[in-house]
Amino acid sequence: MLQRNTQTKPLDVLVATPSGGTGQGGIDRVMGGLRTELERQGTAGLKVRFGATRGPGHIALSPFYLGGFLLRMLGLKAMGRLDVLHINLASAGSTYRKLQIARLARLLSIPYVLHLHGAEYREFWKDDQSRLSRDIRTMFEGAAHTMVLGQVWRDFVAARAPRAADRIVIVPNATAQPALPHVGGGERVHILFLGRIGDRKGVPQLGDALARMQHLDSWRATIGGDGHVEAARSKAAELGLADRVDLPGWVGPQRVAELIASADIMVLPSFAENLPMSIIEAMASGLAVVATPVGAVSDIVIDGETGLLVPVGDVDALTTALTRLVEDKSLRDRLGAAALQLHREKLDLTPYARAVGEVWISAAR
């Protein structure tokens, strides 16, 4: 259990996250899990609050949520109840909001931790001297610590903001252990994809790979998520996959848990990621994983050990990897067992909450 000196007042932490840790986006799920784990542990010496900076509704309402968060910062600081600010950061609108939050934190002399989780931040934060790039660099270099999800992101931030390099900490995402026991797909191997349906997640390539596997009778697939659902359904029908591939659209937490429990293989052939929650959740249940080595994925999916990696956009390699796993139960079991062990050791919420708490305590010193 993480502890501070309880003879002093608790360390007051305010966490800035899109929907306050209650939304269904990846970082809100992580922060919701963190809040639950902190409550379960009863961590001494920390008082952690969560606040929404975008809000769960229409984007037009986000200025009101941001304004409310900034006012909350001012009020907590005035009452002596804000020691550290934790800022979750992605690209586009998230950065524009967080630039204002970080600017106010520096004005009020509040130490802040930046938590970078955006999959496309390399493309968003350009290596130039534009006003936006300079402002982002100032935000990172003004942070007490920057939390990133893997080595590739540590190198990226260090290159863009050299004065922040010695304060970058790698803390991978984490999930709770599953509430439902893993039962698998039974007689037909269940291949599962979870994520936003579209080009960035490699769904077109996945459809083509599944079409090439139609001669195998021993599999079925579920492609769950929002995005271009109707287009994907039409494409599945065109490829002759309508009776083999289910596209339910957006699925809530309970249904996600049920799908993972009934799956044998998790596939995520993305073109860009940071460290996707679907892979970590799959590992928590001992699924065999097929993914592309993008973002920090290769930090946890070691090819041939904790999963299979395929080149980005390579339909042939994706087809081969999925076919191997469908036909070879011993390989599925071996990769799944290794993934499960890795989750328990490094990707579970218990060590995650401890690591994040240590970053907060260090930031306040």
What is the straight-line distance between the termini? 20 Å
Order of helices and strands: EHEHEHEHHEHEEHEHEHEHEHEHHH
Overall radius of gyration: 21 Å
What count of domains describes the coordinates?
2
Q: What is the arithmetic mean of pLDDT?
A: 94
Low-confidence stretches: none
- The secondary-structure class comes to alpha/beta
Structure report:
With 365 residues, the protein is an alpha/beta fold. It folds into two domains: 11-174 and 349-364, Glycogen Phosphorylase B (Rossmann fold, 3-Layer(aba) Sandwich), CATH 3.40.50; 189-346, Rossmann fold. 44% of the residues lie in helices and 16% in strands. It contains 14 helices and twelve strands. It has helices at 26-41, 62-78, 93-107, 121-124, 131-141, 151-160, 203-212, 229-238, 253-261, 277-284, 297-300, 315-327, 329-347, 349-364; strands at 11-17, 46-52, 84-89, 112-116, 145-148, 168-170, 189-194, 219-224, 245-249, 265-268, 288-291, 308-309. Strands 2-1-3-4-5-6 form a six-stranded parallel beta sheet, with helices on both faces. Helix 11 (297-300) links the parallel strand 11 and strand 12 (308-309). Helix 2 packs parallel to helix 3, helix 7 (203-212) crosses helix 12 and helix 10 (277-284) packs across helix 13. The radius of gyration is 21 Å and the shape is globular. The two termini are 20 Å apart.
